[in-house]
Amino acid sequence: IIPNNIIDNKGTTKSAQNALDDINLLQHFDYPKPIELIQHVVSITNKNDNITILDFFAGSGTTMHATMQLNEEDGGHRQCILVTNNENQICEKVTYERNRRVMQGYTNAKSETVAGLGNSMKYYRTAFVGEHKITDITDADKVASIEEKDKKKSLR
Fold first, then answer.
1. What is the dihedral of CA 105, 99, 110, 12, to 10 degrees?
2. What crossing angle do the helices spanning 62-74 and 35-45 adopt, rounded to 10°?
3. Three-class SS of residue 149?
4. What is the pTM of this model?
5. For residues 99 and 79, what is the distance between their CA atoms, to the nearest angstrom?
6. pLDDT at position 63
7. Most CB contacts within 10 A, which of 13, 49, 91, 103?
8. Residues contacting 31, CB < 8 A, separation 6+
9. pLDDT in tens, 44-97
10. pLDDT(148) > 80
11. DSSP code string of 50-94
């Protein structure tokens, strides 16, 4: 028998919102992924507990939270890299803050102390890389197709 859905009972947006509310971050993010879903995806894709997980579209930081929780549960040594464009300051206000609280511990919405999972996190900010300084960005700094670049060269 083939199941209709391999991700049944792996959390909902509502349960993910409740988890963020518990950390006092709900007001900053409307559609987080459930921790259970990310844990499930990691567990079915690779049984190795010493992998590096890349989330190139990090939002609320669920991937890192799920990774730390899996490591806590099974003694794994998974690492996680999160990348975001920081639109609306999501990195500082949500992604970083959520995982800082999960690592260090926090007081939840019921005024209960939740122990931290430990761990460490490095935060890097990068800058725009283009032909011009960030204050002087022009259309020339946009990514062009190979054909467009070749055309520009032939016009020189």
1. -140
2. 60
3. helix
4. 0.75
5. 13
6. 94
7. 91
8. 13, 59
9. 877 778 899 999 888 889 999 999 999 999 999 999 999 988 888 888 888 999
10. no
11. S-EEEETT-SSSHHHHHHHHHHHHH----EEEE----GGGHIIII
Matching residue, tokens 């899996």: 70
pLDDT score for 131: 62
Whether the Cβ atoms of residue 20 and residue 13 lie closer than 8 Å to each other: no
In this structure, are residues 90 and 84 in contact, taking their beta carbons and an 8 Å threshold? Answer: yes
Digit-coded pLDDT (tens) for 19-40: 888 888 766 667 788 999 999 8
C-alpha–C-alpha distance, residues 152 and 112, integer Å: 62
Phi, psi torsion values for 50, nearest 5 degrees: -130, 45
